[in-house]
Design a protein that fits this description.
Length: 446
């Protein structure tokens, strides 16, 4: 019995050692002409949908050879290469990286797929597959990277490198790696959103002074970001947009910069910007030292603003701060899905919405559908802070109050059945299908 126990222990040790050898994994050389590289296999749901796969010569990233997948003229083709790694520990964090080069692919975001399919006992799927969603271009190649936590029960990870429904497309995969990493630390940010409407101030400066007072008196020390509403230079003044507009940078941003330095916090606020003959409804972001980080010009203008002399903006920029990436929208933008979608697609961790008024449901929808935090500062719409599930986590219901919350930008808000919807949406959205021209009826009538 003792001998059998020793043999069993040795066999267990060999199995454990073999599993442990799977990690860390890295491969960037594939021998051309080799039908299936050692340790790899091909996958599709059924033979009829199997794309053409091979090891390509001369297409490698650094070292020779790469894994090629081509649609082969088959619209139904879905699949490619797969590598299974053992020795995964549930709850541990891992980093998956790979690189691809695509040709003839209309929509790389959903047709070129690198993902992790977690597996456990009896080869059962655990959790939901994780996409490598965030990418950077490096010449002809695109680098994909994902930091993920192994779900409960996971003991193996299948690295899947696929091409989906791209009959004329080809993708080359190379430089694949997977390794355990340290648990990411929380990325906590203190956000303050101000509810204030100055009344009958008579001047832009008086309104600015009113906002400065509430920031000094009501925003707690330690705030990392302070959000003020839309049009703080016109609210309560009795003036027109054109009368209060000024250059950016200019006197209004200098005023906000001084306040930002006092609070050692970023400040975002809606003002009116003049550039030559044009006046924009603009949201500015000021850093802790009082410098202008950037500005966003409101894209969606209601008829009232167009008739009031405002010119629309033409883009959705994002801005890097010392705590994460921030995007801004203004008021009427929330009625349309593309502003928030564009900001989330560029990696915005937090969307700031200075707004005059509007339906609360739309803000909830924008936070939920993009799985991002959102802070709202308003005169009518509830001033609040929303988490990526669209839940209100702080609110300022009364004039002269401040919504304040500490948020963790590294926390994942996962759907029980669908998984991480932030990255999943990025990889499944059909941005390649053109929308019909708004209001154009195909039958010539209604």
């Amino acid at each position: 019995m003792k001998t059998l126990a020793v043999v069993a222990l040795c066999l267990f040790s060999l199995v454990a050692a073999s599993a442990a050898q799977d990690l860390p994994f890295a491969q960037s050389a594939f021998a051309p002409g080799e039908a299936v590289p050692a340790g790899w296999r091909t996958w599709s749901q059924r033979p009829e949908t199997m794309p053409r796969v091979s090891v390509a010569a001369g297409e490698g990233l650094g070292e020779p050879g790469s894994l090629m997948v081509t649609g082969g003229g088959n619209t139904a083709a879905y699949g490619g290469w797969e590598k299974e790694l053992h020795g995964i520990t549930a709850g541990k964090w891992y980093q998956f990286e790979t690189n691809y080069r695509a040709q003839g692919v209309k929509a790389e975001n959903w047709q070129v797929v690198a993902r992790i399919d977690w597996r456990g006992a009896e080869d059962r799927r655990k959790g939901q597959p994780e996409y490598a969603s965030w990418s950077t271009r490096e010449g002809k190649w695109t680098h994909l990277k994902s930091t993920v936590q192994a779900p409960e029960g996971a003991t193996a990870a299948r690295l899947q490198l696929f091409l989906l429904h791209a009959p004329e497309g080809t993708v080359w995969w190379d430089a694949v790696s997977f390794r355990e990493i340290a648990t990411p630390q929380p990325r906590k940010v203190n956000v303050a959103s101000v509810n204030l409407y100055p009344r009958k101030t008579g001047s832009k400066q008086a309104s600015l002074d009113a906002f400065a007072r509430i920031v000094r008196e009501k925003v707690p020390s330690g705030a990392d970001l302070i959000l003020l509403p839309e049009g703080i230079t016109v609210a309560g003044t009795g003036r027109s947009y054109l009368e209060v507009a000024s250059a950016v940078p200019g006197p209004d941003t200098e005023f906000l910069g001084k306040l930002a330095r006092e609070k050692n916090a970023y400040i975002a606020a809606g003002i009116y910007e003049r550039v030559g003959d044009a006046v924009y409804n603009t949201s500015v972001l000021i850093d802790r030292k009082g410098a202008l980080v950037g500005k966003y010009r409101k894209v969606y203008l209601p008829r009232e603003e167009l008739e009031g002399g405002i010119t629309p903006g033409d883009g959705f920029p994002v801005f890097d701060t010392d705590f994460g990436r921030v995007g801004m929208m203004i008021c009427y933008d929330v009625f349309f899905p593309d502003p928030a979608r564009a900001l989330a697609a560029q990696g915005a961790d937090l969307i700031l919405l200075p707004i005059w008024d509007g339906p609360e449901q739309l803000s909830v929808a924008r936070a939920l559908e993009n799985n991002v935090f959102m802070a709202v500062s308003s005169y009518g719409h509830p001033t609040c802070i929303l988490n990526p599930n669209g839940n209100v986590i702080a609110t300022a219901p009364d004039d002269g109050t401040v919504a304040y919350a500490t948020i963790d930008l590294n926390r994942s808000y996962r759907d029980e059945w669908l998984g991480d919807m932030r990255t999943r949406r990025l990889r499944e959205i059909r941005a390649d299908i053109p929308l019909p021209p708004p209001g154009l009826l195909s039958d010539g009538g209604r």
